[in-house]
C-alpha cells in the first residue's frame, strides 16, 4: 500500500503512527546511525523522515543509503529545499509552507523540483506545512524567512489548514520546529484537527512521552520525534510505547 493511502486508512481507523526525524547534518556516519535504526525497528517506528531546514553536508544520500541497507522502515524525505531530493527514498513531503508568505516556499521550489520528481519513483505527498510559534526563533522560521502562526491564534491555523485542504493538499503538518522550546499545544492541534479531514502530522519539541500522548489525544495522526533522540535515544522506546498502547486500545474496540 502506498504511504498516503496507509496514512489515510490509519487515520480513519483512529490509529496513530510515529516517525523518527534524521537530520543528515547531525548524523556523521553509519556507525552513529545504526543503533538508532535498530532501536526504531525494535519499537515499531512507522517512518523515517530525512531532512532538515539547512542541510549543509552532502550526507543526505549516504544517510538514505545506510537506512535502506539496514532497515525496512519507509523513508520519507522532509526537504528544506529542492536540493534535498534523493530518488532512492520511498516518498517525499512536497511541502508548501502555507503559514508563510514566502513565494519561493509556497510554489517556487516546487517548480524546480517538479521535473525531477516526475522522472523518478518517489511517492509525492502534497503537504500543507504550518509553522507554529514555539518560543524562541527556530532554524526553520529563520531560514524560511516566514513568521510562524502565534501559538494562541487557533482559528488562524485552522483556516490555514482548511485552505490547504481546499487547494488539494493531502496532509497537514503542524510544526513547532526542530528542538522547539514548546511543542504545538493541544488546543491548537485540536482546532486544526476539527477543521480538516486529511491526516495530521505534528512535530517539533516532542521530547517526553507525556507530550506525545497530548499530541495524539488532541488529534495528531502521526507524531515526529527527532531532536530529543540525539541526546537520549532511549526516549524512543517510551514514546513509541504510547503510540503502541493507543493503537492497542483502538484495535480492542
Ligand atoms: C521538526 O517536526 C520535526 O521539523 C521534529 O522536531 O526535532 O524537535 O523532534 P524535533
Write a concise keyword list for the protein shown above.
253 residues, alpha/beta, TIM Barrel, 8-stranded parallel beta barrel, 45% helix, 17% strand, binds SN-glycerol-1-phosphate
Lay out the secondary structure.
Layout: H1 3-13, E1 17-22, H2 30-42, E2 47-50, H3 60-70, E3 75-77, E4 91-97, H4 103-118, E5 123-131, H5 139-144, H6 154-166, E6 171-175, H7 186-195, E7 200-203, H8 209-218, E8 222-225, H9 227-231, H10 235-252
Parallel strand pairs: 1-2, 1-8, 2-3, 3-4, 4-5, 5-6, 6-7, 7-8
Helix pairs in contact: 2-3, 6-7, 7-8, 8-10
The structure holds SN-glycerol-1-phosphate.
Written description of the protein model:
The chain is of the alpha/beta class. It has one domain (3-252): FMN-linked oxidoreductases (TIM Barrel), CATH 3.20.20. 45% of the residues lie in helices and 17% in strands. The protein has helices spanning 3-13, 30-42, 60-70, 103-118, 139-144, 154-166, 186-195, 209-218, 227-231, 235-252, and strands at 17-22, 47-50, 75-77, 91-97, 123-131, 171-175, 200-203, 222-225. It has an 8-stranded parallel barrel, surrounded by 7 helices. Helix 8 links the parallel strand 7 (200-203) and strand 8 (222-225). The longest helix has 18 residues, at 235-252. It starts with a helix and ends with a helix. Bound molecules: SN-glycerol-1-phosphate.
Amino acid at each position: 500500500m502506498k504511504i498516503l493511502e496507509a496514512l489515510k486508512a490509519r487515520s480513519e481507523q483512529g490509529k496513530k503512527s510515529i516517525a523518527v526525524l534524521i537530520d543528515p547534518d547531525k548524523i556523521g556516519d553509519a556507525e552513529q546511525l545504526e543503533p538508532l535504526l535498530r532501536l526504531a525497528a525494535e519499537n515499531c517506528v512507522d517512518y523515517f523522515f530525512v531532512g532538515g531546514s539547512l542541510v549543509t553536508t552532502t550526507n543526505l544520500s549516504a544517510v538514505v543509503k545506510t537506512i535502506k541497507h539496514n532497515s525496512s522502515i519507509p523513508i520519507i524525505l522532509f526537504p528544506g529545499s529542492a536540493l534535498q531530493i534523493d530518488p532512492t527514498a520511498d516518498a517525499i513531503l512536497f511541502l508548501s509552507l502555507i503559514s508563510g508568505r514566502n513565494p519561493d516556499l509556497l510554489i517556487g521550489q516546487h517548480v524546480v523540483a517538479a521535473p525531477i520528481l516526475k522522472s523518478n519513483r518517489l511517492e509525492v505527498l502534497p503537504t500543507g506545512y504550518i509553522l507554529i510559534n514555539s518560543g524562541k526563533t527556530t532554524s526553520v522560521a529563520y531560514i524560511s524567512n516566514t513568521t510562524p502562526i502565534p501559538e494562541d491564534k487557533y482559528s488562524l491555523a485552522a483556516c490555514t489548514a482548511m485552505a490547504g485542504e481546499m487547494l488539494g493538499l493531502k496532509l497537514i503538518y503542524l510544526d513547532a520546529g526542530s528542538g522547539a522550546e514548546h511543542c504545538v499545544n493541544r488546543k491548537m492541534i485540536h482546532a486544526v484537527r476539527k477543521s480538516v479531514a486529511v491526516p495530521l502530522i505534528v512535530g517539533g519539541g516532542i521530547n517526553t512521552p507525556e507530550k506525545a500522548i497530548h499530541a495524539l489525544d488532541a488529534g495528531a495522526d502521526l507524531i515526529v520525534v527527532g531532536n530529543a533522540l540525539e541526546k537520549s535515544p532511549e526516549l524512543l522506546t517510551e514514546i513509541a510505547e504510547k503510540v503502541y498502547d493507543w493503537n492497542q486500545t483502538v484495535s480492542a474496540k
